[in-house]
Fold this protein.
Amino acid sequence: MPLITMSKGYNSDVEALRQKEYPHMNDGVYLDHSGATIYAKSTVDSFCAKMVANLYGNPHSENFPAKLSGDVVDQVREKTLNFFGASPEHFDLVFVANATAAIKLVADSFRDLSEKTSDRRFWYGYHKDAHTSIVGVRELTYGQSYCFRSDQDVERWLRAPETSFVNRYNLGGLGLFAYPGQSNMSGRRLPLSWPGMVRQSEYLQNTYTLLDAAALAMTFPMETVFQDPDQAPDFTCLSLYKIFGFPDIGALIVRKESGHILTLRKYFGGGTVSMVATFGENWHRSKGLQAPTYKLHDGLEDGTLPFHNILALGEAIDVHRKLYGSMSRISDHTSYLISRLFRGMATLRHANGRLLCRIYNETSDFEDSTKQGSAIAFNVLRANGQHVPYSDVERSANAAGIYIRSGGVCNPGGIYTALGYEPWMTERALSAGHHCGSHGISIIHRLPTGIVRASLGAMSTKQDVDTFLDFLRTTFLEDDQDWSPSNRAAVRSPRADTFALDLPVDYTTSNFPDVREVPRPRPMLHHFATAPDTTPRVTPLAMHDMVHGLATVK
C-alpha cells in the first residue's frame, strides 16, 4: 500500500498552522522534539501583551502587584493540573525548574527521612530505560539500589516481592521505585499499571513510586495516568517545555495521600516555612506540615517562584488547546508520523540488499500509541555492514538543515542494552577516552557508543518525515563500494510516492541483541588437573552489582 494514502490520525490542519504559528521553523527540519518542542507564535504574543499591560511583583509580598502575581500562580497551578487530568482534590502541583529538579526534590526527601530508619538508608529500584537523572538517585542509597533489566524483571518482583532478590534487605522498609513512562532514547512506552500494583502489594506498603513523564507527556493524554488516584504514581515529574516549547519550567505532580512524606525533608528555603529560630535551639516550622492553613506545595517551593514563567505557562496552555484541541489528537497525529518514519526507514536498502538503518526497539509496534511514542533510535549502516559514526550522521544532517540528536542521549541503561554492551566493554570505552557528549568516540572496535534519535512533535508534518527519509536515501545509500558521505548528492525535495509501506518479509527491528559485526569467539574449554579454587574474589554484593548492574562512567 502506498505510504501517501495512509493518513488515518494525521492532522492536516498542522500544515496551515506551521505557516501561521511556527514561521521560525521554516529554515530547517526540526526532529529533536524529545529535547524540547517548538513554541507557538501566539504564546509569545499573548505573554508579551500581558507583560506590558500589567505590573507583576514578587508573590511573597502583600502589595497589589505581588497579589496579582500570586493570583496568577494559583490560577495557572490549577489550570496545569486540569490540563493533565489530575483532579486538584487528589493531586497537588509543585513548580520546579525541570524534571530533574523534581526528581532531586523527591530523592533528597527520601534520603533525609531514611536517616531516621533502623539502617539509615532507603531502598531504590529503577528501570534500565531510565534517564540519567533517575539513575543518579541511587547514589543517595548507600549501595541499596537495584536496576531492573526488563519489564519482566519488574513484574516478577511485583508478583512476588518477598522472594525476589532486588538488593533489598528490609522488605518492609522505606523504598522508592522509579521508571520512565517512555524511554527518552527509543520512544518505547512502559506499563502505567506498576504504581497501582506497588500500592496493592501487602509487602510494599512503604515503597513509593516515581514516574518520569518528561518524554511521555509530550504527546500522550496524561489523564490516563491520573484518572484513578488509587492507580496513579505517588510522584510524577514533568518538563513542560517539552509539551509547549515555552516557558522553560517543570513540575512535580504529587498524590496528596502520599505527599506528606516530602514535607519531612531537612532543607527549607524562603517562603516554605512559617517560623524559623536562629538563636538558641535551632528549629523551624514547615508550611507543608500546617494543613489546611497552607497547602503541600507551600512547603516545597523554595524561594521566589519564576512567576513570569508561570504566567507564560498559562498562556501556553490556552494556545495549545486552541491550536490542537486535545492531547489525544496530538497522540494520533504523532503516532501516524512515527509509523510513517519507521516504515520508510525499514525499506531503505543498499544495492547489495543490506538494510541502511538498524532500529532499536523492543516492541516493533510503531502503530500502537500505548506502546510507542514519537521517537525512533537507530544507527546507519554501510553496505559492508559496518556502522557510520553517529556523529557523522548528525553532522551531515546539520549541513542539510535537518536537526536530530545523536550520542548517549542521557540514557545509559537503554543505550548499552540496545548496543549489546557488557560491563567490561563500558570500562574499555572509558579507558579508550570515550565520554558522553559531542566529543566522545563514536565507534570502538566496530561497536557504536551511541545512537541517532529522531523525534516528532505536535507541529511535525508528513513533509518533515519525507524530507528526512530522502536525506537518508541520498546521503548514505551505496550504489557501489566507492562510497563516502562527501560524494553523495545533496538533499532533494521529498517525493512521497516513492515511499512504500509494505515491509520486506525478512525485516525486523533490533530486539536489543549483541550487534557487533564480528561474531564473538567461542570460549575455550579448560581442563584442570584439580578443581579450581572456589573462593570468591569479590563480595556477594559486588558480584551482584557486576552481574545485574550497568557500569557507570563517572
Notes: Residues 64-83 form the longest helix (20 residues).
